[in-house]
Amino acid sequence: MFRPGTILVREHQDKTHRVEVLEQGFRWEGETYASLSVIARAITGVRWNGPRFFGLREPSKSGAAR
């Protein structure tokens, strides 16, 4: 889905978050995670679809925020 070495960037509450795509998982703030959704939840404190949080997917047609 994503090429290793790709950097995903998302600003949230005035902080810029950079996530590196690895062969197996993702690296954020020096830690490795299995999914973007886990990282999105750590950043926001609520459940998010990780690819949607990082702007890689369009929001659902129902108009839901998450």
Describe the structure.
It is built from two helices and four strands. It has 66 residues and is of the alpha+beta class. A four-stranded antiparallel sheet has the order 1-2-3-4, covered by helices on one side. Strand 3 and strand 4 form a beta hairpin. The longest helix is centred in the middle third of the chain and has 9 residues, at 36-44. The protein is globular.
List the topology elements.
Layout: E1 7-12, E2 15-22, E3 25-28, E4 31-33, H1 36-44, H2 50-53
Antiparallel strand pairs: 1-2, 2-3, 3-4
What labels describe this entry?
four-stranded antiparallel β-sheet; 32% strand; 66 residues; 2 helices; alpha+beta; 4 strands
Provide the gyration radius in Å. 12 Å
Q: What is the SS-derived class? A: alpha+beta
- On the 0 to 100 scale, the average pLDDT is 90
What is the count of helical runs?
A: 2
The backbone outline, from C-alpha atoms, is globular
Span between N and C termini? 21 Å
The helicity comes to: 10-25%
Low-confidence stretches: none
Report the strand count.
4
Across the major sheet, the strand order is 1-2-3-4
For the report, how would you describe the main beta sheet? 4 strands, antiparallel
Strand content: 25-35%
Order of helices and strands: EEEEHH
